[in-house]
Amino acid sequence: MIPFRRLTHSLIVVFVLTLVLILSVFTKIFFQANHHHSSHSAILEKIVDSNDQQFDIIQIDNHPLAFYVHFDLKGAAPKVSYFEKLFPLLHQWGVKGICMEYEDMFPFDGIVRSIKHKQAYTKEDIETINQLAKDNRLDVMPLLQTYGHLEFLLKLNEFSDLRENPKYPQVITPCVDRTYTVLYSMIDQYLKLHPDIRFFHIGHDEVYYFLTHPACAEFQRATGIQNQYELFAYHLNKIVSYIKKRSPNIELLVWHDVLQNLNLQMLQRYNFLNSIHPVLWSYREDMQVEGFVIGSQADLFGQYKSLWGATAFKGATHEIATISDVKHYYENQVSWIKQLQTYHRTKWRNFHGVILTGWSRYDHFLSLCELLPYSIPSMLFSIAAWHKQFQSLPRNQNLPHQLQNYVQQQLQCSSALHLNTQDHFSTKPIPKCRFPGAGVYESLISLGRIWNQVEQAESFVNKYVTDLHVKYNYIHVKRGEECLEVLRPAIHALQSFINLFIHSMNEVFPEQVAIEWLETYFMQRYNLVYRRYEFIQRAVREQKSWDTRPIPNINKLEANLTNAR
Questions:
Q1: Separation of alpha carbons 493 and 46, rounded Å
Q2: Active site (annotated) includes residue 519
Q3: Of 64, 174, 190, 504, which has the maximum CB count within 10 A?
Q4: 59-395 CATH, one of 3.40.30.10, 3.20.20.80, 3.30.1360.120, 3.40.50.1100
Q5: Phi/psi zone of residue 423: left (φ > 0), alpha (ψ -120 to 50 degrees), beta?
Q6: Domain Glycoside hydrolase family 20 catalytic: where (predicted)?
Q7: Which of 84, 124, 206, 507 is catalytic?
Q8: Which tens digits make up the pLDDT trace of 369-381?
């Protein structure tokens, strides 16, 4: 039997040891919690992202990149409901943000209220877009042109006095004080509707005209500015200083093409190396030929606090391209990746991010080029090119099969996607897909084959119904009936395309966008075919007698030529 005193002592020792053990465990947990407090959000983010596919990581040389997708909205902005469907996919594909170039679709008011599109977004629409982006963990970077590409402002008579060159409404003049009243109002409205942005792109590309405004002579005497580059730096500094005064923490991005002409002394004078982030844009299949890659230019861009690049997934091959050359845009990404894999360790250690641009028009006055919903496959091929697992795949003349399979799966397509114009005109199956706007993609793919069908019909019709027959109402009725039989299926296919295209487009855009596209690329040719079809129908039905030859009368032709002179 253990004496009571020894029992009590043993129990106390056990209790103390247990207490020490418990305290040590809690102390360790508490220490670890505090030690890792700064990375707690990152850990949570990884937990939240545990359902995401791990290979959808965009990086260079194991260095994560800020990867943004650009939406050029001028004159053809999607409905907000389209972004609601698209933004979750962007997040799934590894995209970190969106660059929104609203142009005339922004809900401007006050002194610039007249510049907005008649179907511009409302302020509530912008707030909804921002919230949709936030819900899908996408950062929002607005893009507002503040020097060149201000056609949507300067085209109007009330702002024509601000044109640097009175004849051309592209570039605003820094030589007039009212310029800054107008630009600051536009900037204020952007900042008000984007109160939480980290990045703001202020354009400044393709500034073609300098010091041609009548007020510039006096302006030069007052400021001492001697040349176009001094003027560019002066204007850029005015815009940067104004925004930084309003919102000191916003990082400002600027296109590189005019900026690259400023020497180091000028960059240091205005502190541009720290206050702005150049965006080097190249949409070539081989971007290594660009001036900013070679020699001193590359070194100079490496001195900025931060550097960005811009590639493209649409709108960068031809002003009136309607078909995306997927392989071209993919090669554009690959070329950038190769260059960065070399320069990121050497000249461009400051490289921060990429903007994947998707241009809708080459400028405000030009036609729509590749449509956004049609170009979603090109967008995803371009994004996926940056995924770590696809950067080292062996390549041949075609896109890697693993990449094609990934894109096909992500877009839920029934068969292989079309990669170029030749595919659209071939017998390759038309894929049925389930991505947002897939109906536009499928209808545009089908159009090439429809035109092939029309051309085959016309090759038969042209044997028997020429322009002369139409002009002089002179037709072979039996052959005309045969022509109708050949033309009828082609006409039906064209009309079916119109209906399907308009329906699919109206799910994405306001209805005027489909009409603009059809008027630009379809209706002229369709009308020629349909008028000939109508003539043959009428002639077959009504032709009962024919004039004697000659048809036409040669004297009438000579009279027409005389009148033309």
A1: 51
A2: no
A3: 174
A4: 3.20.20.80
A5: alpha
A6: 115-265
A7: 206
A8: 999 999 999 999 9
